[in-house]
Here is the input.
Amino acid sequence: MIDAPFYEYGAFGDRAALLLALPIGAAFGWFLERAGFGNARKLAGQFYLRDLTVFKVLFSALVTAMLGAYWLGRVGLLDLSRVYVPETFLAPQTVGGLIFGVGFVVGGLCPGTSCVAAASGRLDGLALVLGMFAGALGMKVAAPRFAAFYESTPRGSFTLPALLHVPYGVVVAGVVAIALAGFAGAEWLERRAR
Amino acid sequence: MSPGGAGAPAAAGAHPAAAAPLAAATPPAAAPPAAANHPAARRVLALGAAGLGALAVVSGSPYAAQRAHVDVEELSRTISAEGDHVTALDLARWIKDRKPGLRVLDLRDQAAFDDYHVPSAERLDLTALAGARFQPGETVVLYSEGGGHAAQAWVLLRALGHREVYFLRGGLYDWVAEVMNPTLREGATEVEQKLFEDRAALGKYFGGTPRIGAPTPAGESLPVPKKKDDGGEGFTPKEDAVRRLKKRGC
Here is the structure.
């Protein structure tokens, strides 16, 4: 019988969910740090095609989560229809993505890794974390002025199987194939760069 | 977690410092650490992911609702044996007797539910049916206004594998006519009289108003024996039931 998502099925309440977020976040931070993501130089290596660890780690995580979600759903332990799929707002998300990308290239860290960098004592990480909170606060204050843009070009929730009109399992296999080819290609690029 | 991918992030992105001693064994120490650690483990993880991915192609949808299965023969037998529904009086007795594990689900919209619903009922949107979750041992009774939606939802829940599901025959109209406002027609027989007394007691329990000698609208009489269900809405004229629902301030 289906038991997950645990929160959706009322296995625990809001308070327990918040408490559980702490060890999950800590584990996430731990693995980011162990992957070397506290170091802005390592992350920047991605953009010069010298060090593709970010691509490999994050794509591995994606494939792991995808296979886990697919197979848990398939054997009836996870109700995928209750898993939240964020909605697409084309224009604001494009702008947001560009701001994110510029910040990533300039600072060499993304939000999660900036926290890891700050926690491991790097001042650039700390500066980015402070900037991130300032930006979030500023956005909250300025939100009413952007409200119309913020909610423009809504496209609803997309999943690849629905978008491509192919069976779920085919998308799963396709993403795994792309990932494995990507890993091989990434390592080829890394060898060539040295 | 899938066995094929569980360790992939750690393996693919192991910290350079931690990887160095292992990397030293095969290529020269200066070689890129990420490409050199645990070649065997990496191969196993890659093969595992590839295998689980390939198997997914032939394993169907991970959404339970999309794998629903209709056993036409079994369902038609259940319907023919009248094992698909309960009458308003059955439901009233179940609620009154606090039948263990009983769940009464109202499939109408929120406004209609707020106006009036069967006591102890909870609202469930038809579109949320696929995600509805029931505990083992629960008996589910579905109802809608006339009974059509509830009967359709019954088929869907059975297709999803839920077995203890019934719909209320005649819907809320039957509930109002038979439980809340049972009527004894003038010149009733003794059997009808006895039945009416039982039903009047049940109706009063739910706050209804039994009526004696009230003029019986066309098409409505004491259901002894009960007319075979035809989808629910033929038993009590719809307009009349709506009128009476409104009169009750429902």
Observations:
- Helices of chain A lie at 14-34, 40-44, 53-74, 90-107, 111-119, 123-150, 160-164, 168-193.
- Chain A has a mean pLDDT of 90.
- Chain A touches chain B through 48 residues (CB under 8 Å).
- The first strand of chain A starts at residue 87 and ends at 89.
